[in-house]
Amino acid sequence: MNQATRLAPAAGAAPRDGIYDALVVGGGLVGSSIAYGLRRQLERVAVLDEGDVAYRASRGNFGLVWVQSKGMGMARYSVWTQSSAAAWPQLARELLDKTGVDVRLEQNGGLHLCLSDEEVEGRIAYMNELMAQPGMKPYDWKMLDRQALLDMMPGAGPEVRGACWTPLDGIANPLKLLRALHSAFAREKVDYLPRCPAQGIRFDNGIFSVDTPSGVLHSRKLVVACGLGNKEMARQIGLDVPVRPQRGQIIVLERTRRILHTPVTTLRQMDEGSWLIGDSQEEAGFADDVVKLPILGTLADRAVRMLPALRDVRAVRTWSALRVMSPDGFPIYEQSATCPGAFVVTCHSGVTLAAAHALKMAPMIVNGMLDEDMSPFSTRRFHVQKAS
């Protein structure tokens, strides 16, 4: 149990009287990052959290701070992601200074491994197309041949033909990040209200009234950042947010001596030595607690082909969790036209975008308007009439 949980009002307890400057619906990585950023400028901030009965994409996160590959079809997403990666060191320092929690940020670059010559050719074509998009902010990347890869990843399997490397990628520990954010709530006097989901939202005369099990809370600003719950909550502030669950599965291997310091898209070693294998993408509805052996077998097979030494490392657990996906896979950031002061924040990259949410988006919300260059993330993109 972290410090924030111990000091927060218990479920059913009355929060502080009066009107909050901002209420954030959702206490996962997205909502917590936003709330942390809001508290840097606002006096009274509260976080409404459903608790551990929620789907909790945050607890199933792979923990990549990842730029590579992102933005095909929306260059603005790549630019936004790059800005977050650049801001991550500041966020990590602030959290360490305020809470003593080291989120174990490492930005040593990242690898996308190719297991055939065809994959190498496909990767080169993909990256060239990505960088050529209008509005793209190009970044350094290069294809490593097998020998260059072995210098970075000793022990790579014989099937690995090469890898795409970028210097911007990295990792963090998602559980330590969530703990640090919640510990910061206690220190900064953010009212974190666990087991206190939003049950209804009303807007009148510039004030939001939110029904909760603890009673009605009032606020001048409202941020809906409750993952898969955003669809219903956003509807109550006049927004249509079409999100769906996408299941991902992860295999955890026992701790070993730290040997992989440059993460791979589907394989990473944690700071304490354990291994994570992941990246499945399944349209499986809300069956979040189901793991499937065929999927896990495919993940394990590819990991061992990448790094054969993993054959001798025992699996200790598996889990599945639900990503929050929009129709095109990109984030949704929207301010309500009918309820001024209300915003929705939806994405499936809660770790990568944590710094941007805390240090860049939160100030926009404080100012009452998203910057113009955030307009590509609006839900209006889903309603553009197709040419006949």
Please state the average pLDDT score.
90
What gyration radius follows from the Cα positions, in whole Å?
21 Å
The dominant shape is: globular
Structural class: alpha/beta
Distance between the termini: 57 Å
Give me the number of helical elements: 9
Low-pLDDT stretches: 1-16
Strand neighbour order, sheet with most strands: 9-3-2-13-19-18
Any idea of the CATH class of the largest domain? Alpha Beta
Biggest sheet statistics: 6 strands, mixed
Give the topology, please.
Blueprint: H1 3-7, E1 19-20, E2 22-25, H2 29-39, E3 45-48, E4 64-65, H3 75-99, E5 110-114, H4 117-131, E6 142-145, H5 146-152, E7 162-166, E8 170-171, H6 174-188, E9 191-193, E10 200-204, E11 207-212, E12 215-219, E13 222-224, H7 230-235, E14 244-253, E15 267-269, E16 275-277, H8 293-306, E17 315-325, E18 332-335, E19 342-346, H9 354-367
Helix pairs in contact: 2-6, 2-9, 3-6, 3-9
Description:
With 388 residues, this protein is α/β, with parallel strands linked by helices. It has three domains: 166 residues, FAD/NAD(P)-binding domain (3-Layer(bba) Sandwich); 58 residues, no CATH class; 82 residues, D-Amino Acid Oxidase, subunit A, domain 2 (D-Amino Acid Oxidase, Chain A, domain 2). Helices cover 29% and strands 22% of the residues. Strands 9-3-2-13-19-18 form a six-stranded mixed beta sheet. Strands 1-12-11-10 form a four-stranded mixed beta sheet, with no helix packed on it. Helix 2 links the parallel strand 2 and strand 3.
Note the main attributes of this structure.
globular; FAD/NAD(P)-binding domain; disordered N terminus; alpha/beta; 6-stranded mixed beta sheet; D-Amino Acid Oxidase, Chain A, domain 2; 388 residues
